Structures are given as structure tokens and as C-alpha cells.
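Protein in question passed on here:
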Amino acid sequence: MERFFFGVFGSILPDCIVFYSKRFTAPLLEFDLVQYLIVMGVYGMAAGIVAWIYPYKGGYTRWKAVIVGVTMPFIVSGLIAVADRTGGADGIDVNVRGPQVATGTTPDNPDAATIPGTIIDLVTMF
């Protein structure tokens, strides 16, 4: 069970980077707290399970379980991003994501409208 918890801990570490860097990479895209919690829960469970069953070369260590947890969100988000972007209609290579209607403003720029993001948008930000 220790492996599971260290895998979950590792999956939370990239979230800290995403929370901080989102204000630079996508300042007008906003998400609900519930969306963050859902994505963190899915990544945490997946990383915990993989860290628990992973056949560690050279034996298990806590550090290796954390590394498995850190890499899990990047692998999953990469796969979801590729599937989302290439799953369009015939002859269209890229799907346009996110809502088209803007609501609200940001603290830095009160004139700029924010865009509510979807869970798929949040998942693909890693």
C-alpha cells in the first residue's frame, strides 16, 4: 500500500506546476475547483495503481514510486490530447476545443474576457 500512496503523491506534484504556470500559458482560461479535483483524483488513482503493480527494475524504492506517479499524468494527458486533436471529422486534422463564449474578466486585465474551460482542456494542459 506504500507504493500506492507514493504514486499518488507523485501525481500531485505536476499539478502544482500546472496551477502556477496556467496563469502564464493560458491566463484567460478558467476552471472550476470541481474540475481540478476530478482530474487530480483520476490521475492520483491511476498513478497509485500503476506504482503499486509496476515491476521495478532493481527493486522497489519510494523514490521510484514517486517518479512513476510524476510521469503518469504526462502520459495520460499526452494520449488524451492526441486522441482529442485527431478525432475530428473526415478531412479535418485538428478539433477546435473549448467554448466560444467568453465570460468575466481577469484581475490583471479587467477588459479581457475569460473563457470557461472543460475537463478535457484541463487534462491536456499537463
